[in-house]
Design brief:
Strands 1-2-3-4-5 form a five-stranded mixed β-sheet, with helices on both faces. It has a single domain, classed as 3-Layer(aba) Sandwich (Trna Endonuclease, Chain: A, domain 1). The longest helix is centred in the first third of the chain and has 16 residues, at 4-19. A hairpin with a 5-residue loop joins strand 2 and strand 3. It contains two helices and five strands; from the N terminus they run αβββαββ. The chain is of the alpha+beta class. The radius of gyration is 14 Å and the shape is globular. The relative contact order is 0.21. It starts with a helix and ends in an 8-residue tail after the last strand. Helices cover 28% and strands 37% of the residues.
Length: 111
């Protein structure tokens, strides 16, 4: 079960994704938000939050991404589309304020 802080990060990431014009396909697919960006990429976005500091590197993200992507592709058929893994990091600075950083293609590979 996700913490309240992680749920806030997920909600903030989904809000930003929608503001960027992306389509959210799954809001919580094995801890990832699955969306299509404006260029047609299938993006697995991982939200992460920390109070008082920006979260650091996400450990073991490659394995989590590969498993989530494989499970998604086994269940759905998005066709031949490029995929990548992004991260939204949220630094909660006060109960009503936070900084959100979007890191694109964090695993640095092209599919």
């Amino acid at each position: 079960m996700a913490s309240v802080l992680q749920e806030r990060a997920r909600a903030a990431a989904i809000h930003q994704i929608e503001r960027m014009g992306w389509e959210v396909i799954e809001g919580d697919w094995e801890s990832f938000i699955v969306a299509t960006d404006v260029n047609g990429w299938l993006v697995f976005t991982y939200p992460k939050a920390k109070r008082g500091a920006m979260p650091g590197d996400i450990k073991n993200l490659r394995g989590k991404f590969e498993q989530a992507a494989a499970n998604y592709l086994a269940e759905y058929n998005p066709g031949a589309v490029p995929m990548r893994c992004d991260v939204f990091k949220m630094n909660v600075v006060a109960d009503d304020r936070a900084m959100l950083r979007h890191e694109v293609n964090v695993l640095r590979f092209k599919l």
